[in-house]
Amino acid sequence: MEMGMQMTCIGFPKATSLEREAALQLLRLQTLGALISKCRLAIEDFAGCPENGRYRARLEIGSTEDKCRRVGRCIRDSADAAVQRAFNIAVRCLELISLRFRP
């Protein structure tokens, strides 16, 4: 199944380098594609809260049963780092789900 991703940047313009990073991270989910029908990534700039990190990334995965769940969420100092961490969390979550469905 072909998997696509909708990416939204809130509070700052979308950058080509960030789109490239998100696309590379999306490739990591291809091995778990049987569980995924859609993917939504939102990256938000929290310029006013530097003590907690500046960028928040939220990754939502739509399952093949049309259920959508937030599987990755984190705050980091750079948008790239936030995206990477959100996908790390999502990959681990989906790996655990796939283990549950193995015969």
Automatic annotation (TrEMBL):
<protein>
    <submittedName>
        <fullName>Uncharacterized protein</fullName>
    </submittedName>
</protein>
